[in-house]
Hints:
Number of helices of chain A: 3
Largest sheet of chain A: none
Helix content of chain A: over 70%
Helix content of chain C: over 70%
Largest interface: A-C, 71 and 82 residues
Order of helices and strands of chain C: HHHHHH
Number of strands of chain C: 0
Number of strands of chain A: 0
Strand content of chain C: under 5%
Structural class of chain C: mainly alpha
Radius of gyration of chain C: 21 Å
Shape of chain A: elongated
Distance between the termini of chain C: 61 Å
Oligomer: heterotrimer
Order of helices and strands of chain A: HHH
Strand content of chain A: under 5%
Amino acid sequence: MIPPNYFLILSVVLFVLGAIAFFIKRDLITMFMSIEIMLNAANLAFITFARSANSPDGQIIVFFIITVAAAEAAVGLAIILLIFRQKKTIKSEDMKLMKG
Amino acid sequence: MTEIFWLIPFIPAASTLILAVFGKKLPKKYVSFQACLAVFASFVISAISAVGLLQTAHGNYPLVKNLFSWIQAGSFQVNLSLMFDPLSAVMALVVSGVGFIIHVYSIGYMADDEGYTRYFTYLNLFTFSMLILVMASNLILMFVGWEGVGLCSYLLIGFWFEKHSAANAGKKAFIVNRIGDTGFLLGILFIFIHIGSGEFTAINEAISGGAISVGLATLIAILLFVGATGKSAQIPLYVWLPDAMEGPTPVSALIHAATMVTAGVYMVCRMNLLYTLSETAAQVVALVGAITAVYAATMALTQNDIKRVLAYSTISQIGYMFIGCGVGAYAAGMFHLYTHAFFKSLLFLAAGSVMHALSGEINMKKMGGLRKYLPLTYPTFLIGAIAIAGVPFFSGFFSKDAILTRAFAQGQYSAFYYFIWGLGIMGAVLTALYMFRLIFLTFHGEERLDPEVKKHIHESPKIMTIPLVILAFFSVGAGYIGLPVVLGEKLNFFGKFLEPVIKEVQEVHLSIQTEWMLIAIAAVVAFLGIFIAYVFYIRSPLIPRNLATRFPTIYKLMFNKYYVDEIYNAVFVKPTIKGSEIIYDNFDLKVIDGAVNGAATATGFAGKILSYFQSGLIKDYALIFLLGVIIFLAYLLF
Amino acid sequence: MGYFLFFLLAALTVGAVLGMIISKNQAYNAIFLILAFACMGGLFALLEAPFIAVVQIIIYAGAIMVLFIFVVMMINVRSGIPAEKKKWIIYLSPVLAVVLIIELILSIKGAFTLPVSTAIIKAGPTDLGRLLFTKYLYHFEITSILIIAALVGAIVLIKKKEKE
Lengths: 100, 638, 164
């Protein structure tokens, strides 16, 4: 039985990595992917607590998170496609319409 | 039946509201009809209530009706409550009665004026304020009425506001009034501190119960009197009244002769216990009144504007009323107020009639010999002049005589009062003199009319002359309800009526011979003045001019009103204006505007800086987000 | 045995994510991510959540990442995206990362001492299904509406351009 601490630490590390990736990367698609990483880190934490609290509710929540992430990915990618069609670029520095 | 007395002020108030809101859309005839009707209704109710008072037992005075609890702040309580007692009854009757007559006269006088509706609205508003003033049962509500009439005075003096002089005159009246009000308010303040209530019944109880020391009473009485000098145009705050003649003549008649300027006298009579208690204050009142009476009369002697003569005459006559109050003859002072209302408003309205006939001419040097052309105005004017001069059997005689007799009688205690009496007699001579100078210059002698004006001369329409006749009738007959005591105590109805309110000071008795002698002196003095006027202006018209050339300095002083206006201007007005300008430049513009503009600039600047953060890039936003999370977590953890 | 698996999977996951961060090619990023998700699935299985593990692999690694790869191929950026121009971000990120990790671990310190139950939880499809349809019924229904909305939204977003 692996103590949940390890999993939690791993979850934290993954989350932070995903957050940092969001800043470093300059193309939209990879930024989007880093969001998925963050979601997964959260999933890991949920499952860990589900196990340590002996309750399947945590897993149900993860279930929903996965579902919602899927929906969000679909729509987000559609938007990225549209942006690319408009601007012919996916560099995030070019999305400056809200400046000022 | 007296229960409805509280309606008296509110009927004109309702009329004012209606005229103010709907006035523009109502036909002119209706406007004046409603205005006059409102005042007439007040008069009827006043009369009914007064009659009811006569039948009520003395112990039930005064009738108080508390309408509304206005201010309640701990122990400081002010109610909107009206009261009705003989003193209020007299004032209410005078205000509404003479007011009604003047309203009717105005229908004719202002017939061609554009501001017809506005005029009647203001007049009704004035009537309401004045009635509140005289029927208030506490000092604060009276002060409300006091300010209300001040406001209406401003509005009506500056009625033709496009004329610069009229607008300035209105401002002057209001500002000078306000200066007096400072004293008044201080007096009210002291009363509240020491007595705890502004209600007249409470004040009278406190005074008769000995709760006020003589020194304190003196202070309060003098402070209140300062307010009275402002409102009633005595020295030193009289300067607004002559300028107030810029307003329409009926306004001068109503406000500046019969009612508003007498508010100070009313106030002193209302607070008579206070002035009785403090002999010093009463002497101050008498002295100021007496000096003003003579001083104003001298200025009236040299004026050429017919209305200004009457204005100075008013100042002088009010001085007499204050003499009456100051020597302890409050009832006599009120009596003079009452008779003066009739003959002074008659004089003003008749003067208005003359001006109307001469298409607006006010300079007496351009009049003369008008008695052939104005068959109704001349006799009524004459009756008014005779009454004010104090000729026996006319109303002015009885009231003036009552005051002077009392002054002389007080002389037994102190020679001061003989001095007052002397000033009073001198004033009486001057009164007759300037009044008949006016009559002779205007109606007799050679005609000095402008040929254009002469072509259009006409007697005034009936709606203006009938009020003149009514007032003339009262100028003669009104005095008979207050016959001198020497003819019998019982005949002094007026004094008896006011007895419950005016606790008469020590009864002073003179021997019968002295009293008859005083009456004789008063009569002689009146005729002396008329005779001198006759000599100067009819028989040898060159005498006045010679006197003027022989004593040029004195003449110049009198003609220029002793340069008081100029002195006030230099000492008070100019520095105030200069000071305001300095403050405006340095404080208003720099500090206040600077602060406001500075706030705007700072905000703009901050916004500009903050806008650097809005780069439009999600990454930057996310970075800041993350930094915020880090900082927040740090704060929570440590 | 369990520990060995754990460390292996954990290292793989972190390595994949790091690789994703370093690589500049979107296709490579996607592949790295698939690897990461698969390892996550393994971790879930280690945590006695078999159903979720399988769901993770099927949906996340299988469906979502395929979507990503589709889009990457459609966008097809020829020249790679150059590295970050502003150097200070490159030096700031590790610092921020470390700071954030430390802070988060400190925040959840309290959870380290929670009692861990050793019972085997029932987390098979039957059990989860039963829960879904009873306790979490509303959530389920609403999520399905959400999916429909996403479906319709995605189609509408893309389709509009073509009509004109």
